[in-house]
Amino acid sequence: MEHTLSNDTMAVSGPLKTPCYLWRWATFSNGYGHFVVGGKNVLAHRWYYEHLVGPIPRGLTLDHLCGNPLCVAPLHLEPVDIQTNSQRGRHTKLDRLKVLSIRSMAKEGKSTKDIAAILGVGRWTVDGVLAKRRWGNIEDA
Predict the structure, then answer these.
(1) pLDDT tens track of the chain, all 141 residues?
(2) CA 136 to chain CA centroid, nearest Å
(3) DSSP state of 86
(4) Are 90 and 81 in contact (CB under 8 A)?
(5) Is residue 102 situated within a structural domain?
(6) Which of 37, 60, 91, 95 pairs as cysteine with 79 (C-beta 3.0–4.6 A)?
(7) How far is it, in rounded angstroms, from Cα 34 to Cα 110?
């Protein structure tokens, strides 16, 4: 099947200056569009990026700058490392300021349980930040 932005997508306005091109066909439960090529499921946004921009560099994944997993607009897709992608993700509860707050509260003697309750995150998230397993790329101010 030949894939073109005009046949497979619908242009809608989004948070960026250029429109999102939303995949109109099959989706996975996580919201990402897909189709089958040679018996294999292919993520629609990756296919469009690779065919219109070029290969995704090894070790990188595509971040939807518009935040919409159905969008296949190449200008809305940026190759980034997995850590950056997850930090920018739709489901992340933390940002740089909250990471620094976690570290600061821990230095002040607050418990992991209290910090988690204050920020509305799990204790394992706080533990990960303090051990720098999560958000380790954020330097203390």
Answers:
(1) 456 566 777 777 777 888 999 999 999 999 999 999 999 999 999 999 999 999 999 999 999 999 899 999 999 999 999 888 888 887 788 888 999 999 999 999 999 999 999 999 899 889 989 998 888 888 886
(2) 17
(3) H
(4) no
(5) yes
(6) 60
(7) 46
Q: Tokens standing for 24? A: 């109109």
> Are 33 and 26 spatial neighbours (Cβ–Cβ below 8 Å)?
yes
- Rounded CA-CA distance 56/63 in Å is 11
**CATH assignment at residue 23:** 3.90.75.20
Distance CA 76, CA 59 (A): 19
DSSP secondary structure, 96-122, as one string: HHHHHHHHHHHHTT--HHHHHHHHT--
